[in-house]
Predict the structure.
Amino acid sequence: MASETQAHHGDQSHSEHGHFGPEMWVIPEASVLVAEVNEKQRMTPGIWRVIFIAGGVLTVLGIVGFVLKALSDGFSDHQAWGFYIAAFAFVFTLTASAPLAACAFRFTKSHWRRPLSRIAEIFSLVSLVNILLFIPALIVLPDIGVMHESGEQLVRRSIWFQELTNPSGWLMAGMIGLSLCSVAILWVAAMPDMAQSRHHVSGFRATLYGKLAGCWYGTKRQWQVQKGGLAILGALYFMMVVFVQFLIVSDFAMAMIPGWKDSILPPFYTVISFQGGLATILLVAYVMRRWGGYRELIGQAPFWAASKVLLGLTLLHTYHLFAFFITYWYGRLEVEQAILNYLMFDSYLGIFWAQLFFTFFIPFPILVSNHARREGWGAPLAAVFIIIGLMLWHIRIFAAAFAAAPAVEGGLYYLPSDAFSFPALLLPPPEATFPGIADIFMILGGVGIVMLVFRIGMMMLPPLSLWEMKEGSMYQRVDTLIRGRYLVLGKPE
Amino acid sequence: MQEGKVLPAAQINRDLLRSILETPQWFWPVVSLLGAIVLAAAITIGIMINTGLGITGLNYKVVWGFFITNFVFWIGISHAGVMLSAILRLAKAEWRRPATRAAEVLTIFSLMTAMIMPIIHTGRPWRILYWAFPYDFARGIWPNIRTPLVWDPSAILTYLTSSTLFVIIALVPDFAVLRDRTTGWPKLVYTLLAMGWEGNPRQWKLQIIAGVLLSALILPVFVSVHSIVSWDFGMAVAIKSWHSTVFAPYFVVGAVHSGVSAVVFAMILLRWAYGWQDYIRHEHIDALGRLLIVVATGWFYFLVMEIIFGIYGLEGDELAVRALQFLPGDYGVAYNVWMIVFVGITYFLPVILWLPKAWRRNLWIMSAACISVNVGMWLERYLLFVPGQANKQFQTFTWNDYLPQWPEALIVGATFAFVSMLMLLFSRVFPLVPLYDIKEGDILRTEIQVGRRTVPATFRED
């Protein structure tokens, strides 16, 4: 059995046994996994240097853009910071949901998840950067209430209702809690691998692994605690990520556009985040497989199976968009028509259609095609389009939201209790804003910092979840059923 | 995960066809009792048509009451079929096998029942022809095709048609088994229904492809049906608390919540009634319980969003409806008490009952939790629709609360009897647990030795 299993890993799954499609990828033998992964981690193919350098350069550009923006506009004019908020939200969207993918697929006991788990969990390190990126966002977020020059206290709509000040404390607490939880997931999940690898590595990594996993001996009790802990942390993380997404999209988008009351936006944002997170994981996995030297360790099965999930999320994205649109469009309320015109049909018409093409019309046929999914390139290609589309989505929603909040004496238009009497939206919607050079630098910086931190994470930690891969190799075998040879998967309780 | 033992095909046939080839003593008395309730409701409907809707509690302000609540409830139950059958089939969840047929059949019967409700609700059922179908009758009055009230019949009829096709495709191999085990006119009927099925490789291949294709094609219909039903309300701007963008996914997830709960309860009943302990096992109920925790939590999230963003607008009219829903006040009906009951029995109680594994495997506890969900989901629809209408609005000079009368209560109660009766009658002529699916599952079952432990395993064809 050992040799047979060995024979079918990676691209060799199409070999002499005709029943082995990409979906029947077999994990390599447990005995060779650790050595292979450690060896591959020591190697640095050109792609990793490119990613490291490109990530560093883009991060520096982002810092330059941030400084330029701060010097030119200061922090008091919230309208100038719309693209920064879009860049932050884009990074947050893609990276906050990534660790959740590891937890969710572990919960559903999906065999194909195993090579993707650690990739997903390493994005937890980006969540630490998210805290830093969030600080300027909180500074530029306008207060909920202001005193108008007439002496009237004006309060804009907010999920914080009667609070008058910017709810920075709660938002930051949510973000820090989320980051800590995701790092805890990474630590607990990587502990067995670090414990095993500490004897194969030297220098900083040996010290790091010793500190973080020195207490791990792999006893039955430790395994039980580790698996139970991951399940609890996963459930906690799921609740926290949904909650923080709700806060961010409500405070930084909906509450900034006068009259926008949209109960589907937080679930929509959550779906987008799941879609973006999975797309990012698949893209990284493809790069690792195609150019990073992990061809034998990351088969086609994860792409084949995850692309179905990505297809489902893509359809859900479009469904939520349609549910929002049809309710507003059919309702014919002036305030809702104004918001539709602003976000979809007038000011941001071009970006809306471009985003729709990138998030649905292009990836949908790719993900529906069995051929594209089977070959392994379909899902990553769709993921690229989806990520570009989601960047446009964030610009359309967050940058537009900050641009739409018109200033009155340095504050926002503040709503009385009856939105329908609000005059601002009965006027033609504001023009779309376009990014300046500093804005472009900040958006690129957002992408760059994700690349940089991920690459550093890959250097620090085993980039594949060794214990899950080994577990997978124990729960599989190739066996005969009637006249065919098939993969047999064990599923313990 | 897999429990129980692999049974010989002959025993599977014998056990699962017992409901058809033998008649339990309780069968006809129970069917008669259910039939009597349905008959009473039919007579009441006759009286209502003859007398007018005045005998119900419906009034000028609250025009959508028990009947429409019940309509949405049964549409919700119908979502179990596709959720369990199509989605789990595509996801290749092994534990789906004994549940699929009952879920699909429940879909059909609950859709039929749901469609009856708005017809009764019109008071003059024949006028449906003018309102819903694009037929002129030489009167120059065409239905407004831009209203969700016209989209509804289109979506529901499409769903009914595709669900029926789905069930028939899955039944063909079982029809053939019945054809070979019956005599006389039943044999003739099963022979016609089996359409020449011999179980050769080509037929199996076509049957599997048809099942997978229908699973994929029926999913958009499944989502669209309850979305469109939600838009019956969500498109209305006049009733505060209804015009909400989240209604479509909120209704769909709620439908799955109530539908899957109903299927679990139906499975427990079938297991008890026909002694199918070897087929509907604790592991299946356990897996469905875990699925329900996820679905219930998703549904609760949408509920919270609906409420938060109802209040978020701080619009006077909407706040008044929310006050009617949540706050104690001098109203005829204490909606706030019902609201607490509804949230408690729809989410908190069942999820607490589903969390411990031992409780998920206790059929009494699972039954109680699933009944609790369905009572709660019925209440949810009622509390979503009625307070918005009952609330006094700007420039409204007459307003009323709603107190359902006996005809509504009887008719709504009878719909449960109607669906139960149809399910029982179906089980009398067709197998409610798919024979071929169970046999396939047994063939694919195997074991893997990991160290000293034997782990249940499955052959993966794709």
